[in-house]
Amino acid sequence: MKSPTLQINKAHYPVTVLGVGRRIGLWVQGCSIHCKHCVSQDTWPSDPKRALAVAAILAWCRKVAAEGCDGVTISGGEPFDQPQGLRALLQGLHAWRRQAGLDFDILCYSGYPLKTLQAKHAKLLALLDVLIPEPYIEAAPPRKVWCGSDNQSLLLLTPRAQARYADYLNLPLAEYGKRMQVAVEGGRVWMIGIPARGDMAQLEEICQTRGVTLAEVSWRR
Ligand code: SF4
Fold first, then answer.
1. Closest-lying ligand 1 atom to the alpha carbon of residue 31
2. pLDDT tens digit string along 84-130?
């Protein structure tokens, strides 16, 4: 039988701005939702060349987080556009957590409405600790941490998630200072996290005034 794969845009450790603690971040490649003003438009096209064996992704996770990690955040792209690969990844993470006696949480973003996910992907939801569903809406700036827009919220699906995230549910965004993280890898600069409205335009403007033109950016195509 063919081993399951998942198209991946990027992976990073440690991610500290998308969930509690120091986390593994996995961004899938491919999103069919196309929210207006999405800042990750580089993840939209499906690209079979970016398909990685789930076993290799799990091996990388175990390697980078050998000392342990607080969580795994899966974003994109749209993770639920690759349900088979996502299922294999989640099952592998569960097996790793169980066998190694770890307690990391698994948080997943989706641009699909909760009702759609419940109707089509209940078995996948059962493998998550935290879900942040619903599409990005530019006109609704977020008031909650780790959400891209105000129609989104953290859904705590397990006792582990309740214990770890309950204090953050009503934490005003302004009180949570960490928004963005920068990583430089493979000749690319990655902005990780949830920018405030206008942050990316401002960044571009500042770069421009210092003589740096951003040729390829993920927030427009
Ligand atoms: S915000 Fe997420 S769901 Fe919406 S288009 Fe961007 S990657 Fe897709």
1. 8
2. 999 999 999 999 999 999 999 999 999 999 999 999 999 999 999 99
Domain count, the chain: 1
Amino acid occupying residue 21: G
| Sheet order of strands, 5-15 included | 51-53, 5-15, 23-28, 71-75, 105-109, 130-132, 155-156
pLDDT at 1: 63
Would 28 be classed as within a structural domain? yes
Q: Does 197 reside within a domain?
A: no
Element (H, E) at 114: helix 114-120
| Ligand 1 pocket, mutate which of 31, 44, 146, 152 (most atoms under 8 A from CB) | 31
For the residues 32-41, what does the mean pLDDT come to? 94
Q: Is 204 a domain residue?
A: no
CA of 143 to the centre of ligand 1 (A): 19
Query: pTM for the whole thing?
Result: 0.93
Q: Quick check: is 189 in a domain?
A: no
Q: Which residues span the domain enclosing 59?
A: 5-179
Residue 75 tokens read as 């974003």
Residue pLDDT, tens place only, 180-216: 898 888 777 888 988 888 788 888 888 888 888 777 7
Q: H or E segment at 51? A: strand 51-53
